[in-house]
Write a structure and sequence with these properties.
The structure is a single chain. This protein has 457 residues and is mainly alpha-helical. It has one domain: Alpha/alpha barrel (Glycosyltransferase), CATH 1.50.10. It is 46% helix and 6% strand.
Length: 457
């Protein structure tokens, strides 16, 4: 494979949604999960971090893949949100092994983002896209309508466009940036329509003297931890705010257009959210439910996404972040004993029947390594803007324990159990999240000042 990259023209893809599409998608996914559970081979018997990473990158960015996915057992369905939550450093030059790796990543990212943009053009904005035959796709929401699908699409597009801004010798980076600009020009109108529609769907919510706009005031909206099925969640509304900000930054929508729909500018919209969810002096996970002990009112997903809700520019915002982080750090029920692995929450929230069978602790008493990586990155943001070293040691401890778990378990895990072991439920037995691995390397370098792995190309 040479160092250049060509992006083939897309064929006519068709997207379907509705009751029939949901039924078929569920059937396809059931077969896929069964096949993965029964037929998956044992993981590559490696222990050295460099070997584990190389194997993961060969799997994540194989030339045979048609879309960038996490890995088993999700490899048969596409999740747009992942480009914001889990894949923000696919094109970080420090994580790319060689020019062939760069070409594979750029090509797969372009193919993936183009498919998602075609879905937006077809007015299919869903949490999940399930392939259903040649050039046929089913859009389905498993639990509720999304709050972060457009955010993921914008994140993928933004990553492509900014690829050439990173110092790199890989020709594929500039070619990917050019392809991203072409996609933005081709699909910008479709994205604008979808973003304005999202803005028009927000609902007023009043609590005392606080007046705010929420995306989930009356019904749940899905985000990365969507199986809680809760209304009035911080993370879903933080995703919507970030979608608007990125839409403005990319020139897709004018802020004045959003201001007319929202009745306020984006800065005020954010202050309203912080005032509502931070009324107790920390960021409450959800307003939907009884008010209890602060530690039971917070969850690790408050860290939001890379370059997302938290910019740490205001002292009041930093204070809210610090208070919430300190609650999580200081509460033993949030931590796997003897480690810096933080669990999603201090208790097991409400679960739907499918999660009681397949993944009972998916959103509660389990650790998501990537959420821990984002927690570490937000800590570094806080230290940078406050001019302190308040959280650096904790951030380094998080990354060190993730490195250890990766080496012990033979790959970057999607989930780690409450006991610090592989997540061994029926559907997620030892699932390795290949495509999340580069983000870990990026934050490691930021935390330590030197890369964990190095390559010569």
């Amino acid at each position: 494979m040479n160092s250049g990259i060509s992006f083939p023209s897309h064929r006519e893809n068709r997207f379907y949604q509705g009751v029939a599409a949901t039924f078929v998608a569920n059937a396809i996914q059931a077969v896929n999960f069964l096949g993965d559970r029964l037929l998956r081979q044992s993981h590559h018997p490696l222990t050295a971090m460099e070997d584990l990473y190389r194997h993961s990158m060969d799997s994540a960015f194989s030339v045979t893949e048609s879309f960038l996915v996490t890995g088993a057992p999700h490899a048969s369905a596409y999740y747009p949100r992942d480009f914001a939550w889990f894949y923000p450093d696919v094109l970080d030059p420090d994580t790319i092994m060689d020019s062939q790796d760069a070409v594979r990543r750029a090509r797969l990212l372009e193919k993936s983002v183009r498919l998602l943009l075609e879905a937006v053009r077809a007015n299919v904005v869903t949490t999940t896209i399930v392939p259903a035959g040649r050039f046929r796709y089913l859009g389905v929401n498993y639990f509720s309508r999304p709050s972060d699908t457009l955010l993921g699409i914008l994140a993928g597009l933004q990553q492509m466009i900014s690829a050439e801004e990173r110092a790199s010798s890989f020709l594929a980076m500039s070619q990917c940036a050019h392809a991203g600009r072409l996609l933005l020009a081709e699909y910008g109108g479709d994205l604008k329509r979808a973003i304005l529609q999202l803005a028009s769907e927000l609902e007023p919510f009043n609590e005392g003297d606080t007046r705010c706009l929420l995306c989930d005031a009356s019904a749940p909206r899905s985000a990365a931890t969507d199986t809680r099925a809760e209304r009035r969640r911080f993370v879903t509304n933080a995703c919507v705010y970030t979608t608007f900000v990125w839409g403005v930054q990319l020139g897709i929508v004018d802020e004045n257009e959003l201001k007319r729909l929202l009745g306020r500018d984006l800065a005020q919209y954010k202050r309203d959210l912080l005032g509502l969810f931070g009324k107790g002096g920390y960021i409450r996970h959800s307003l939907d439910g009884p008010t209890g002990s602060p530690v039971f009112s917070v969850a690790l997903d408050f860290v939001s996404v890379h370059l997302g809700f938290w910019d740490m520019s205001e002292p009041a915002e930093r204070a809210l972040f610090a208070a919430t982080a300190d609650l999580i750090i200081g509460e033993p029920r949030f931590r796997i004993p003897g480690t810096f692995h933080f669990l999603v929450s201090a208790d097991n929230p409400r679960n739907k029947m499918i999660h009681k069978i397949a993944a009972p602790a998916y959103q509660g008493r389990s650790s998501w390594p990537t959420f821990n990586v984002e927690f570490a990155d937000r800590m570094l943001d806080y230290d940078e803007f406050s001019g302190s070293d308040t959280y650096r040691a904790c951030a380094q401890g998080i990354l060190k324990d993730i490195r250890t778990a990766t080496e012990v378990h033979g790959g970057y895990q999607e989930l780690i159990s409450e006991q610090g072991l592989k997540y061994r439920t029926w559907a997620y037995e030892g699932a390795v999240a290949h495509s999340w691995f580069p983000r870990f390397l990026s934050v490691w370098r930021r935390a330590h000042g030197t890369p964990l792995l190095q390559w010569n190309d």
